[in-house]
């Protein structure tokens, strides 16, 4: 992309050199010829062949016709999967202070992944100290943070992941009480009964399908489920959750879907709390960073093969 270093004052156009872009599973639903998610929210509108793909990311202003931004400003917001972004009026964009932390954190732990984990756990599930929490896709961008927040809060936490390396990481680095490789289990309901003999209070669901069924079967009365993602359905529509609705009704289980954009009101609390945890060494930022715009396709495809550990990010350029 050829980029000019000048834009006309008053146009409100900002030209951004992209530094880091977020790679997220939900984007696959935007690329489908049809997905019900596309009409549910403007944040998941479809992308047609030949169109640019926007994503949360970090960049540096190289030219600005908007008085709110100057050349050299670091920004975070909706940028594109590419080298540069021409940001037009009305697009989510803001300047930020790195706070002495890596710029990549703005895309992951201090960005939408972190806020999703924080809001989903504390606003949707409302944990109490000592409660039993189960997290699926627990080594992913959101799941690893849910587990860490829950442990810091005083909960008992078990996570599931797709290989033994990830299981070891959850227990040895991130402080989960226990974890298991779901690919080695033939009966998920029995597995969860083994790890939660007295039942699950909170299930943070990132996968849907049979894992949700198994979790509901093992929930305590008044259990809460945060329905954050359904990655098992994104690439296989035959996988649909069918939880026992008698359990849902008679155990009075709450299952609530949510989108991070609905919880921007807690962003400042989330940011302050998470920065304190990072500086005190109480929480780990788990990042999986690829380099160069040419690595975006393989980075994206790898999400659906379980290649990533933590937040998948592509570094487009140096600051």
Automatic annotation (TrEMBL):
Q: Which domain of life is it from?
A: Eukaryota
SUPFAM superfamilies in the record: GroES-like, NAD(P)-binding Rossmann-fold domains
Q: Name one GO molecular function term.
A: oxidoreductase activity, acting on the CH-CH group of donors, NAD or NADP as acceptor
Q: Where is the Enoyl reductase (ER) domain?
A: 2-314
* Pfam families hit by this protein: ADH_N_2 (PF16884), ADH_zinc_N (PF00107)
PANTHER family (alphabetical): OS06G0602900 PROTEIN (PTHR43205:SF12), PROSTAGLANDIN REDUCTASE (PTHR43205)
User: What is the designated name of this protein?
Assistant: Enoyl reductase (ER) domain-containing protein
């Amino acid at each position: 992309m050829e980029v000019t270093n000048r834009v006309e004052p008053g146009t409100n156009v900002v030209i951004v050199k992209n530094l880091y872009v977020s790679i997220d599973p939900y984007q696959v639903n935007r690329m489908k010829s049809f997905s019900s998610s596309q009409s549910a929210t403007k944040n998941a509108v479809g992308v047609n062949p030949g169109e640019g793909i926007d994503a949360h990311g970090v960049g540096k202003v190289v030219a600005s016709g908007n008085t709110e931004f100057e050349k050299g400003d670091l920004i975070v917001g909706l940028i594109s999967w590419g080298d540069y972004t021409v940001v037009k009026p009305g697009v989510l964009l803001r300047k930020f202070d790195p706070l002495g932390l890596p710029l990549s954190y703005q895309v992951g732990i201090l960005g939408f992944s972190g806020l999703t984990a924080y809001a989903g756990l504390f606003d949707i599930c409302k944990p109490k100290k000592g409660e039993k929490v189960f997290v699926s896709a627990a080594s992913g961008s959101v799941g690893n943070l849910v587990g860490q927040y829950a442990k810091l809060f005083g909960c008992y936490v078990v996570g599931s992941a797709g290989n033994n390396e990830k299981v070891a990481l959850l227990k040895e680095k991130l402080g989960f009480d226990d974890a298991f490789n779901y690919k080695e289990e033939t009966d998920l309901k029995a597995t969860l009964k083994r790890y939660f003999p007295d039942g699950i209070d909170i299930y943070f669901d990132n996968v849907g399908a049979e894992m949700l069924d198994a979790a509901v079967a093992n929930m305590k009365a008044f259990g809460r489920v945060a329905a954050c993602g359904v990655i098992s359905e994104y690439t296989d529509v035959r996988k649909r959750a069918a939880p026992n609705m008698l359990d849902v009704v008679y155990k009075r289980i709450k299952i609530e879907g949510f989108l991070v954009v609905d919880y921007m009101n807690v962003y400042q609390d989330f940011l302050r709390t998470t920065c304190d945890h990072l500086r005190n060494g109480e929480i780990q930022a788990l990042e999986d960073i690829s380099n160069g715009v040419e690595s975006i396709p393989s980075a994206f495809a790898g999400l659906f093969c379980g290649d990533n550990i933590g937040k998948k990010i592509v570094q487009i350029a140096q600051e």
